[in-house]
């Protein structure tokens, strides 16, 4: 038979499916084994050394990932049991309870295999959880052996109560385990003089931060931020700075991480790193990523960053330099994202940027497709331009740097991949470019340049054709505002129907007209 060549996409799907199946298989087979063996060990004492060798093949990070995956399965199963219990599906409740019992025992056995120094408190919780799971299984087994509705009704409250207790013990045990592991990693980072061991601990810590905000809170409470900044203040660990800073950026997504950063003068340390020209570009880029994280306008707990204002001019200057000298799109994205967030954080930043000729540097970068190569980068640039455009001196800088042409091009921003995140970035680029045009067009010279570049027809198209703006209401409002500003400067540039529908009415009326407009009307 002739050999068949599969499309590459199908090959990837097959690989991914098989890989996923292989990952899940161990957990499934362990569960089946546990149903029979009930957690009885099959090795004898003389095999302990072999067991130790086998377990040492896996890193702490791998073991924690297995633990977290098992914990996720148990958590999901407990939620499903509650749903089935609500519908009185006793047979399903019992089979799922047996499965949870097995998973809990497997999880505890697996953890104790690679962790030989568990605390007494942890062993107590393990015993409590195993006993309660056994009690839970016995309860549900009695429930499937009776058909008397009254008895089942009376037992349901007991089953519910036991389920709640199992979930509570399980949550407390996982919290203890994760805290214990975080403490171990902190100890390793603080006490080790070895670059290799410290790198391994930081790598494991970073993996934990990717599991969500709750783990970031645990790490912050256990001194993660303090330990990592200690690394960033030691020259012998310079090669680990990028990895360390990346981990810090992840931890600082939670309030506890931010408070710790403030306590250890983290802002000053970041400023020192950014202004030290002997550091690598990768280190500067990761420091910029931490700045971007802690100044994010989406966070509600940045008000306590008082030390940031003291170091802001140094930081902004270093970030502008990083944008100017960026060797890749990723470096530029991190530096410009930090600058964009800082312009929201404090208005004084815009004045500093103007003094540093940042407008000229950013506009020049946009002409280099290797540096500003994605909608995400353009989103950061246009955010900075929009926030700077409130300053009167900004208009002349825009004219000199051919910025109106760039803003016009950004009104045509479209996603090439259809990826939802990229589509959202394109919408933000369109919206902010229209906002910037509206603000800058109070200057007659900017308005005249925009009109000559045919901005008015493009704004009308965005207003009247929902697909052009990906049906975005925020883009529509911004375009209507920009169109009205330009119409004041050049009323002859609009047809009467456009003026009557898009300019003359109240903004809200024009908005409602455009949102209800069918494509066939365009």
From TrEMBL:
GO BP, sorted A to Z: apical protein localization; asymmetric cell division; establishment of mitotic spindle orientation; regulation of asymmetric cell division
GO CC terms in record: apical cortex
Kindly list the residue ranges recorded as spanning the membrane.
Answer: none
GO terms for molecular function, please?
Answer: cytoskeletal anchor activity
Ranges for the Protein inscuteable homologue C-terminal domain? 70-522
Q: Where is the Protein inscuteable homologue LGN-binding domain?
A: 13-57
Q: What is this protein called?
A: INSC protein
